[in-house]
Design goal:
Elements (H helix, E strand, L loop, with lengths): L3 H13 L1 H40 L4 E4 L5 E2 H10 L5 E11 L2 E8 L18 H8 L3 E5 H7 L6 E6 L2 E11 L9 E5 H8 L4 E2 L1 E4 L4 H10 L5 E4 H11 L1 H32 L1 H9 L4 H45 L12 H28 L2 H4 L9 H25 L4 H34 L5 H12 L1 H39 L4 E4 L14 H8 L4 E14 L2 E8 L16 H9 L4 E4 H7 L6 E6 L2 E11 L8 E5 H8 L6 E6 L5 H12 L7 E4 H15 L1 H28 L1 H9 L4 H43 L9 H27 L3 H6 L2
Parallel strand pairs: 4-8, 5-7, 14-18, 15-17
Antiparallel strand pairs: 1-10, 1-11, 2-9, 3-4, 3-10, 5-8, 6-7, 12-19, 12-20, 13-14, 13-19, 15-18, 16-17
């Protein structure tokens, strides 16, 4: 064990050099904070979904759901009388808004089984309970929610649903003991039916089935058009929708921690260099190699522990900011989730501690080993060239090549494993980073050979200093290369994705005006667009054609999927962005009703290809549909299925329309047509959305840009950590070259000349990092597009490398390195010459 004398020596050193300790703590703190923040944001979003599901589903094991018209009330009566299923309860629920707050209206039968929902229902023997049963518009909410909305018992307020506002009265307050209850607006089921316009219809019937025999009996009894769904299956399906998104965020956060590991290596190396003379004296006085090894490790461990603790604290604050971005993305792409509390997971904090301390230990191993293995006479030299720099770079390069080869090989092992995809990406990144030191030596040799006769002595000394200090400069360039390559790779991926979406929107949005119901995309619940409106638009003199569609969720042998039934009688070839195959033949068969089309994400997730069959649960029973083709779709990572509208109406006996695509006649002003359509829609009480083609494109791209906001934040943090790493490396180089700089000053070189050497080295390091980041950034973009994105969401896209992104990446590296080198240059210029020479 390290003696108390050595421990006090370490503490004294840390107190005497606060900047060194601060840089180490700051870099590692940011790395840990990003990982913890992303983990906590993911945990909070997942917990909010679980709590919401628990609130809505309770302890139900199954539930019965129907088509767009819901489940007839008569089915609930027959369940209890004919089958004796007393442990059953009807439910009506939907999203509403009250004073700007999203709430879930939960209509329940207070006399039926409650399924242990964690919400306190009113006592029906008390006045509040009787009012909720007997008075129209009576609702209840959590005390905390009422306080936030400025409401009290007896107050009337409006709730917005499908664009209309209805008045309700608050008659009961319950304690929000369950976090998800704060988003609940509770009502008797009859009240909820009246508020939502669903008289005689239920959204579903909750059940608690005792065993498989009861389930089989119920399935056999169930009338056509209704389906029995396992609650756990639907919960898992919801969670799986966004799992790839959460995984991608975690991978991005680990990049910041990886860059932080480089920073710790540089900082510990800097500390060893600063104390070489002291370590040599300790070795002469009898301190063993193992004691010196432990001393370096303990110092780094103290800094790592402090940095990890600070990172946990900062991560808690950063996580509360990230949860808003994460929630917005989930609501845009997957499902609506309300995060009413920031969930601090003990597992997230523990993982942050393990990663922070583990990264510190791993980054400290090489510098501690080098200090322990050096001879006393070598250590007592205050500076000088560290031996085996070339062999160090060659060994790292060899390991890097092996790691990259392993990563490429992993991509061939599986076509759909996201975990193997991330491991392959990590191996490629780490492997390439390990080749950077040798690449820096090669670039130094190249620059030196090209400019040997054109540059002065000081410039050659600066270039040689980078080469001889490759143990420091190489790792610094690797850290900056990784951060800049991450920025470039993700920028190329996002740019390629965005252009692909733009092209897809151009092909998909052929109509001039689109009319939809507010919730048509989600579930196709309730009645569709007014039939008179559809007929009026078809006869409108400015309208060339109208294409109608019906949307709803259906169950398949591959799980629930969103079905869009499209009118095909007047389909144009460009209306369907198909992926491969004989386009004309596929469209002919689809229009004829010979099968269905599946989206690319659904095909990838279910491993379905053209020519396969998909079993869909219809009112006529399970039916197999041939898969005629696959179409591009970027609206959902869970998948989408197209079916001809005439086939859908024949099987589901549902003539409702969820949306209309309106095509204008030649010569008709699109703005005039939009105004006419909005005037027609204004005459109906039903909330209907009317949007122009350009409006939908603009809104789609806004959602796209919002989706990647959190990625931009994580990239910025990684660059900041790399900047700190470059600063510590330059400080280490300055310390290592103190005697050399002192000799130059003694020989007549001005302070400005010494500063110029440092600035020149900084510019070269930044330029090298920028150039080396280009191939790594391109490699990361290819892996993100062809491996990670495809395996996460099933989306394919082309590769677009904008020239601006390339020069901006190089400029970012040069500027970051230059700014980091200003202090070392200023410090070296002020170096006391006599004292530096005496230390030798």
């Amino acid at each position: 064990m390290v003696s108390r004398i050595l421990a006090r020596s370490s503490l004294r050193h840390l107190r005497q050099h606060p900047l060194q300790a601060t840089l180490t703590i700051l870099g590692m703190m940011l790395g840990v904070a990003v990982v913890v923040a992303v983990d906590l944001a993911n945990s909070s979003a997942k917990r909010a979904l679980a709590l919401s599901s628990e609130m809505i589903n309770g302890t139900a094991t199954h539930y019965i759901e129907g088509g767009p018209a819901g489940v007839p009330e008569e089915i609930y009566r027959r369940l209890r009388t004919e089958l004796g299923l007393r442990v059953s309860a009807p439910l009506v629920t939907d999203e509403v808004r009250a004073r700007g707050q999203h709430l879930t209206l939960l209509g329940v039968d207070f006399f039926a089984h409650s399924f242990a929902r964690p919400v306190d229902s009113p006592d029906l023997d008390r006045p509040a309970g009787r009012r909720m049963l007997l008075e129209p518009g009576s609702v209840a909410m959590a005390r905390q929610t009422a306080a936030m909305l400025g409401l009290a018992v007896g107050d009337s307020f409006g709730i917005e649903y499908r664009g209309r506002t209805v008045e309700v009265q608050l008659v009961y307050l319950f304690p929000a003991e369950h976090p998800a209850s704060r988003d609940i607006l509770l009502a008797d089921i009859a009240v909820a039916q009246e508020l939502l316009g669903r008289a005689g219809s239920l959204d579903r019937i909750d059940l608690a089935l005792a065993d498989a025999a009861a389930e089989a009996r119920l399935r056999e009894w169930l009338p056509g058009g209704l389906s029995l769904v396992e609650a756990d299956d639907r919960r898992r399906s919801m969670a799986q929708m966004s799992s790839a998104f959460h995984t991608n965020l975690t991978a991005m956060s680990l990049l910041a921690l990886l860059v932080g590991g480089f920073l710790i290596y540089n900082t510990v190396t800097f500390a060893v260099l600063r104390r070489r003379s002291q370590f040599g004296t300790l070795r002469v006085l009898g301190v063993s190699r193992s004691e010196l090894y432990q001393l370096v490790f303990i110092e780094a461990g103290i800094l790592g522990a402090v940095a990890t603790a600070a990172g946990l604290a900062v991560g808690l604050g950063l996580g509360q900011l990230l949860i808003k971005l994460v929630t917005v993305t989930i609501n845009d792409l997957y499902y609506r989730v309300h995060v009413s509390e920031f969930y601090v997971s003990g597992g997230s904090l523990a993982r942050g501690c393990i990663l922070g301390i583990g990264t510190t230990a791993l980054a400290t191993w090489l510098p501690a080993r080098a200090a322990a293995r050096s001879t006393p006479i070598t250590l007592q030299r205050g500076s000088g060239r560290e031996p085996r720099g070339h062999r160090f770079a060659v060994a790292l390069c060899a390991a890097g090549v092996i790691a990259m080869a392993a990563g490429i090989a992993l991509t061939r092992l599986s076509d759909n494993s996201l975990l193997l995809g991330f491991i392959a990406l990590a191996l490629a990144i780490v492997g390439y980073s390990l080749t950077v030191p040798l690449s820096v030596k090669a670039l130094c040799a190249l620059v030196g050979g090209v400019t040997s006769r054109r540059i002065g002595l000081l410039a050659r000394l600066g270039l040689r200093g980078i080469d001889t200090g490759i143990n420091r400069s190489g790792i610094a360039v690797a850290a900056l290369t990784l951060a800049v390559a991450t920025t470039l790779g993700v920028s190329i991926m996002i740019g390629s994705f965005r252009q692909t979406v733009v092209d897809w929107l151009e092909q998909s949005l052929e109509a001039d005006v689109y009319i939809t119901l507010p919730d048509a995309r989600a579930r196709g619940k309730g009645d569709g667009l007014p039939a008179t409106l559809v007929d009026t638009l078809r006869r409108h003199p400015a309208v060339r054609r109208v294409r109608s569609a019906r949307m709803r969720m259906v169950d398949t042998d591959q799980g629930p999927v969103r079905l869009t039934a499209l009118e095909t009688s007047s389909a144009a070839p460009d209306d369907y962005p198909l992926k491969g195959g004989d386009r004309s033949e596929v469209l002919r068969a689809f229009v004829a009703g010979e099968g269905l089309l599946v989206s690319e994400p659904f095909a990838y997730r279910s491993q379905t290809d053209a020519g396969d069959a998909l079993t869909v649960l219809t009112p006529k029973g399970p039916l197999q549909f041939p898969v005629l083709g696959i179409f591009h779709d970027y609206t959902s990572g869970s998948g989408l299925v197209y079916l001809p509208l005439h086939t859908y109406r024949r099987l589901w006996e549902d003539a409702s329309v969820s949306s209309l695509a309106i095509f204008r006649r030649p010569g008709v002003d699109p703005t005039a047509l939009l105004d006419d359509v909005r005037s027609l829609v204004a005459g109906y009480d039903t909330a209907i959305r009317v949007r122009a083609n350009e409006e939908i494109r603009s809104m789609s791209l806004q959602i796209f840009d919002r989706t990647f906001t959190v990625t931009e934040v994580l990239r910025l943090l990684a660059v900041i950590v790399a900047f700190i790493g470059v600063l510590t490396a330059l400080l280490a180089l300055q310390l290592e070259k103190r005697r050399e700089h002192a000799l130059l000053r003694a020989a007549g070189v001005t302070p400005a000349g010494i500063g110029g050497i440092i600035v020149g080295q900084t510019l070269l390091l930044g330029l090298f990092a920028g150039l080396l980041a280009l191939p790594l950034g391109l490699l990361m973009a290819v892996l993100l597009i062809d491996v990670i994105n495809l395996r996460s969401f099933g989306w394919s896209m082309g590769l677009l490398v904008p020239g601006a992104a390339v020069w901006q990446a190089v400029l970012l590296a040069v500027v970051a390195a230059l700014v980091a080198g200003l202090y070392p240059a200023w410090s070296s210029a002020r170096l006391p010459v006599a004292r530096a020479l005496r230390q030798e």
